[in-house]
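Narrative summary of target 7.
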Amino acid sequence: MSTQVSETMKRSIVSVCVVIALCAMPLWAGSGKKPPAKKPPAAVPAKPAPAKMPTKAEPKTAAAPLVVKTEIALPLSLAGSKPAQPKGVSFNNEILPILTQNCQRCHSRDVKRGGLVVENADFLLMGGNRGAALVPGKSADSLLVQKLEGRGPGGRMPQGANPLPPEQIDKIKRWIDEGAQPDPDPIKTGPAAVFQVAAPAPVTALKYSPDGKLLAVGTYQRVELWDVMTGQPVRVLKGHTDAVHDVAFSPDGKRLAAAAGAPSQRGEVKIWEVASGNLVKHLGEGLSVSELLAQKCTVCHNKSTIANTAVSGGLALDSYDAVIKGGKAGKILTAGKSGESLLVKLLLETDKNKRMPKGGDPLPQEQIDLIKAWIDKGAKADEFQSASGMHTDAIYGVAFSPDGKLLATASMDKTVKVWDVDAGKLKYDLKDCSDAVYSVAFSRDSDPAKLRLIAGSADKSVKMWGMADGKVIRSLTNHQDIVYAVGWLPDGRIVSASADKVVKVWNADNGQVVQNRGGHQEPVHDVAIAPNGEVATASGDRTVRVWNSGGGVRATLQGHDDWIYAVAFSPDGKFIASGGSDGQVKIWNAADGKLLATLLSLTVLDAKGKPVSDDEWVVMTPEGYYNGSPAAIKVLQWRIEGKYYPADRYEKTFLQPDKVRAALGGQKVEPVNLTALLDAAPAKP
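Modeled conformation, tokenized:
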């Protein structure tokens, strides 16, 4: 934790914040929810305003907000040693946040599209399948810059998203022109330099359980279930593919659905039993034909090896079109007739010198059967990517129907799918959107014949379907940009949020706009709806706005350090949770907008940067009280007049789980008289 002291005030306390020592290389590679139209500059902590000198009658208290200061790439040892500072543009501080937000969706170690990884400077300097991505000292000749400016082969990057702002490209160019150097290794001194903390992954999804006791937090490859009464995580649901973009509790609160998936490959929905943490269903489980061939065959048979016919036979198997085209020996499959298809014959060949994969073990029978079934059903392109009927791209939205029998999913593959939850089978495959789909929501109708589903899409529309037959009822078209979030108000109207920075309320019966709610300065990524009809909206402008039922802004919640991707109302409407790129979850009192606590999940590393545990946590209140796991508490520090001190110096005063619980319950918590505290026990390094 940190306390900043003004130069002119000597010992007078101006603000309180928590400092977490962070590793230079983040361990997460998922993109944030809903790629923003543009990324703002990295947050710079505001300089505290001068405060009046406290008198004996008016002691200074820890009333300023407690903030998590994520000093990415500036590790600090527990002994207080300072990190080596990069000269010029810092890759870790200035370049990595840009690449993380805009490029890691496709260029992480998990996806590695084109062989390029951008998770740290060393990976970036290694380049990809096209060769070097950078020419140190020559930004104009660097493929990375050419792609960002739209001059490189294959079109502008990021693919399928808006171009990077010129100021961000200029910063990357300056770093390259300065030599494209990684940041220096941090200085580590003494045996105390043991623990660091990886940069927290963005919070991409939030939902309260129906009873209001749990908060599900979706982040990179996991969902955390927090007890919102104590501020402690009770369970972590791991093993998701890439970022978890949305979560949904079943109406009875017994199950939780989490939406994720591999970008441009396949979607994934895992359904968990909340009480036990057991995985009860995995929609899209099992390999697709595309993934199977990629694992077993594309080492020899890809577009780069076609010219070497001695190895590939002129056959590529890394795309649907290539598989259909065949190779030097002609076509390798006959749609509808697996028994006559050369591909199947080669997989079943008993002569190991002729069998595919050449020189390897034969494919298990169930994998051969998967390929045969795909061919016998017509060898269709969509089933090549997903034989199970699952989405062929990451899933960004998920929702249960009011009776819990149906589950809707929205994907970057431009489709919405409706599943029979118990059977795990596809009921409707809705292909009426012309671009990526980001969110879905069922109406509150209890009558299945009247049940409707809405979805927000990058085609700037809100689509509505009837669930009795799966047919489109109407399309709501008035937004000027991507529709990121949709929901149903208690009175049956529809609310939507968009990258055009506007929140709209619609008449569901005629599709007319009832209200336009403007004011956000950046794209609006999420909406949450309270039982009384109030709406909370999360935006890239780092604020949450609370709108009354008449459309007026009742409160603006500020405190996040970066884009906010997710927001949720508690079922009784008393509390609001928000989360975003800074990796923090903040809990607010909905009545007055007061920040109650900040939740943070941490991965603790050893001195060599290797993970010790990824299940560490800290919860903090604005008054300075905190609780946390033992390993996480060890890396907390006080910052006083620019110097760092172990958190345990004032542990007896501020490590107060009871006060944290009181704050989370909305009770008033008295702040500490910091002036008296420091006078009684002055801090020493």
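The CA atoms of residues 288 and 494 lie 37 Å apart.
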